[in-house]
Specification:
alpha/beta; 9 helices; two-stranded antiparallel ribbon; eight-stranded parallel beta sheet; TIM Barrel; 10 strands; 283 residues
Amino acid sequence: MLWHLRDRTLDISRPLVMGIVNVTPDSFSDGGKQNTTEAAVAHGLELVRQGAAFVDIGGESTRPGATPVSLPEELSRVVPVVELLAKQTSALISIDTYKAEVARQCLLAGAHIVNDITALNGDPKMVETVRDFRAGVVLMHMQGTPLTMQIDPRYDDIVTEITAFFEARLQFAANLGIAAECVALDPGIGFGKSSDHNLTLLARLVEFQRFGRPICLGVSRKGFLGRRLGRPVERRLAGSLAAACRALGQGAAQILRVHDVEETCDAVSVYAAIEEFRPRREG
């Protein structure tokens, strides 16, 4: 499976890890820890050293109940981080935003991917921005907005509904000049889903492989793990790895978006080593 990202074509036949850098004071897991340019850049470089193929930079928290950040504030948080990381590492840089101007300035600064939680629904200029830069784009499913999404999420059949959503968004992107080869898909674990919804998605994640596009999975430290395990956010690593390994075992995720890069890379490496010794059916 190939993913076209501006001037690069990435082979993701083996799962890759995307490290999270939150340049925010209020993200659910690590808000405030990288809330300066210097701290965010240092953290990004450390994640690359640990094995991250991508670094995902975000300047606006999308935790449940979060309120939007102004455009000037988001720009001031993320653009300097992208600029400095692009000069200091060859790792791929993703900008986690739904604002077209943030995406545009970060792409100019050296980013390759736009990670859009609204799947190109949040800003009418985002399609043009992604298309003109020939950037990679992650289209995520979310019911509602971060402010409202966890109030009372409901689905008749969550997999069927998200499948229809992906079909519609892929067609929308194609109609406006964004090739499928530039797109990855994210089912949006924790974004307008109950704990049971999230577990259903993980159990049936392989069904989204029908699109032939990379699936980006973000389960790291999320609330449904805490509720299942009775663990605070800083003690959810084992649960996060269990969910990731389930996805790997299904061949259901190509990109793992995580806080704990080193441990996740270790899990991916061991999984890949075991796969090398799995008997192959002939014919």
